[in-house]
Amino acid sequence: IKKDINLKIIETAFKRTEKFDINVLGFFMIGNREETPKSIRETINFAKKLNPLYATFTVLHPYPGTIDYEKAKEDGTLIGGYAPHEPLPWIKLPWTNKVDDLYKYSEMAYDEFYRRPRYIYKFLKSSIHQRNYNLTGYILKNFYKKISSINTGWQNYIKI
Predict the structure, then answer these.
(1) E strands along the chain, which residues?
(2) Tens of pLDDT, residues 68-99
(3) How many alpha carbons lie under 13 Å from residue 50 in its C-beta half-sphere?
(4) 66: β partners
(5) Which of 11, 37, 104, 118 is the most exposed place for a label (fewest CB within 10 A)?
(6) Could you please report the per-residue DSSP string of 50-79?
(7) Residue 130 burial by CB count (10 A; 0-12/13-18/19+): exposed, middle or buried?
(8) How far apart are CA 116 and CA 110, in angstroms?
(9) Could you tell me whether strands 54-59 and 25-30 are parallel, antiparallel, or unpaired per DSSP bridges?
(10) pTM for the model
């Protein structure tokens, strides 16, 4: 999207920022022009590799006046608009039929990113470091509820 930046620069910036114990946020976009399921997978994997404290995976809704909006309008791939009672605009990609196709990837990205043990450990460590014990307790309680709903055998061995 013409930001004149590459993945190596982003990775270096993340590492340098975390080195100084600054919480890093990652903002990732799904539904860019020419994006494919493979490139979305690469974005999700890159986000997991960077492992920021928080990450968002938003579907692109191009604004009027942007290159994506104008090109999509020109080639007929712009769906929706900003008029009342009209769905937010999105770019129809060759492999999509509806915007929900993109939202499914967004939901998958959130699910994969936030359910990783590496992320959970980092988040708990950060909340304890910041002495945010209410948040720590909330995370542990919900993690236990989720795990116990998946596997009914293991909690017989662990008493919480």
Answers:
(1) 25-30, 54-59, 78-79, 90-91
(2) 999 999 999 999 988 888 889 999 999 999 99
(3) 27
(4) none
(5) 118
(6) H--SEEEEEEP-PPTTSHHHHHHHHHT-EE
(7) exposed
(8) 10
(9) parallel
(10) 0.77
